[in-house]
Amino acid sequence: MGKQLVEFAPGFSAWAGGVEETQFIYKEIFEDRAYDIAELPEDAFIIDAGANVGMFTLYFKKKYPSSTILAFEPAPETFAALSENIKLHQLKGVELHECALGAEDGTQTFTFYPIVPGNSTLVPEEKELVTKMFHDLNDEFWNAAGKMYDVAQKVPVQVRRLSGFLNGRKDLKRIDLLKIDIEGVELEVLNSLEEEHWAMVENVVVEICDLREGRLDALESLLESKGFHVKTESPEWSPKEGKMFMVIGRRDGPAA
Length: 256
Known about the structure:
Layout: E1 4-9, E2 12-16, H1 19-31, E3 45-49, H2 55-63, E4 68-72, H3 76-88, E5 94-97, E6 100-101, E7 106-112, H4 124-136, H5 140-146, E8 153-160, H6 162-166, E9 177-180, H7 186-191, H8 195-198, E10 203-209, H9 215-225, E11 229-233, E12 244-250
Parallel strand pairs: 3-4, 3-9, 4-5, 6-8, 9-10
Antiparallel strand pairs: 1-2, 7-8, 10-12, 11-12
Protein name: Methyltransferase FkbM domain-containing protein
Pfam family, one: Methyltransf_21
Domain Methyltransferase FkbM: 48-229
């Protein structure tokens, strides 16, 4: 469907593929401040896993200009828009990686949804469950939402372990914020993170779908086992019967 340059607010434009979806993401990050879970140092080290077209990175670079951000996005079309947005906003200190994160290095088939590229996934069976859930709600809006997954493309993508990007970084002393929004492989990525890197993470926020039963409990248990205070929220946009959650982990006290 191609990318478009969209003005999301006066004086703020960005390239986007699925425009309506990106407007929603802009509101979530810039207006609702969904990821403002802790105050970070000026030179924060941030990981944006599931960067999409870069709204999270753009927001945190504006808030913390001296930060270093590692941004990961596997979908070629979306990565192209992400790259253009970094250039458009003349951002420094942002490392872009065109790959998915996973349990081990390799190549996997990625399902890309042109209408809602931010929902593209390595686990399309999860989207099938989401579609069924929307249909079962018997609501016109959510039934229409499920149809967004009707158009899909299969794309081979590189998959890498997150720790592979962190090993050997002599400047790495802490990971101030680890953001994960990767549509179905959250636990696989986190379980493969090496202990030395877990020890560096101060704050983590994960969007997760619990339609594959037990994944939410497993995520909360994992974060607690690593020493985080955990808080789980259901986003405002999630249907009442839905199983979409934002899980926040903080080391310095109860997650707020």
